[in-house]
Design a protein that fits this description.
about 110 residues; alpha+beta; Glutaredoxin; 4-stranded mixed sheet; about 45% helix; about 15% strand; globular
């Protein structure tokens, strides 16, 4: 499994703690240090609707211009914005067998899925 996120994000910390406490092997990818590829984001966009992939609750979203916010309705423009500002991606992103298993973290969801 792979877990994508930002290490200082409290939700990512909860997910990592849960995975470790439940002996689930995973590789962690820091959005800030490990640049996300265009191909990876394209794959994620093909798996999940943009309204689920984009973190509209965060400071990064609130700091966007209205034009940038409006542009996320288009997959190509949203992908470019997420590449430039990876904090826009809802986190953590849990990948298992090449598929997004979970966006965000919920203990109940992790228990059911893993």
């Amino acid at each position: 499994m792979q877990l994508y996120g930002i290490p200082n994000c409290s939700t990512v910390k909860k997910a990592r703690d849960w995975l470790e406490q439940n002996a689930c092997a995973y590789t962690f990818y820091d959005f800030k240090k490990n640049t996300l590829s265009d191909a990876l984001l394209s794959d994620w966009i093909s798996q999940q609707p943009l309204d689920k992939l984009i973190n509209r609750a965060g400071l990064t979203w609130r700091n966007l211009t209205e034009a940038e916010k409006d542009s996320v309705q288009d997959a190509a423009k949203a992908r470019q914005l997420m590449l430039a500002k990876p904090s826009l991606i809802k986190r953590p992103v849990l990948i298992k067998d090449g598929k997004i298993t979970c966006l965000g973290y919920s203990e109940a969801t992790y228990k059911a899925l893993l």
